[in-house]
Amino acid sequence: MPVSNEVTTTERPDVNAANCPSRSVLEHITSRWGVLVLAALLEDGRRFSELRRLIGGVSEKMLAQTLQTLERDGFVHREAHPVIPPRVDYSLTELGEQAARLVAGLARWSEAHVTDVLTARAGYDDRS
Amino acid sequence: MPVSNEVTTTERPDVNAANCPSRSVLEHITSRWGVLVLAALLEDGRRFSELRRLIGGVSEKMLAQTLQTLERDGFVHREAHPVIPPRVDYSLTELGEQAARLVAGLARWSEAHVTDVLTARAGYDDRS
């Protein structure tokens, strides 16, 4: 079994350790598009095309790659329907829902505090 | 005043909108090193050199850049002490502490669920 798939570890997981697999977990759920995909799936299962429309600026390639990473990590369930035209639905697993609630909290916080941050930036730039 | 420093907005902030400034707030607090720096500062103010030692794999340049971004956003307070050798301390502002609590929650969750994710990855790779 390759090292990257070892499911047991003797040391306590620590995201500050560059080689600890928990850092890759954190990086996947906080990735540029991972955050937005998880938050978008929190309310409902969604089709690929819906996610693509909802999340402004994401390319088809990046969205597919992000969903695949999240599926491999056990956060996202992918269901391909054998219809014409083909339809693929994505939903959160139980594990993914836990992660999604945390990242959605960050997304909502960012929206709620954007004015504070923009004010801070203007002050910083005035002083520089 | 440049558009990026506008502190008022007529529309409701939405991280799914590519041009909404709330997306940049979210991206800064969830950046690769931003997450780890915020979480590291949550317990205590720290010197640059301490942060560099604590956060495995961060380069001096990336740490400096991350701290500057977080300072400009109003999350981090920087205090340079006029001593020899020079010493610079970083601490969280009140706003930064709010963000840090949320990202530290994600870091702790990632550590707690690393085995679940590694198990999911092994299963995915076996099926592929």
TrEMBL record, chains A, B:
SUPFAM superfamilies: Winged helix' DNA-binding domain
Keyword Transcription appears in the UniProt entry: yes
Keywords: DNA-binding, Transcription, Transcription regulation
Record domain HTH hxlR-type: where: 20-118
InterPro entries noted in UniProt: HTH_HxlR (IPR002577), WH-like_DNA-bd_sf (IPR036388), WH_DNA-bd_sf (IPR036390)
Annotated transmembrane regions: none
Pfam families xrefs: HxlR
Domain of life: Bacteria
GO MF annotations, alphabetized: DNA binding
Signal peptide: none
Keyword Ligase annotated: no
Protein name, per record: Transcriptional regulator, HxlR family
Species name: Saccharopolyspora flava
Organism taxonomic ancestry: Bacteria, Bacillati, Actinomycetota, Actinomycetes, Pseudonocardiales
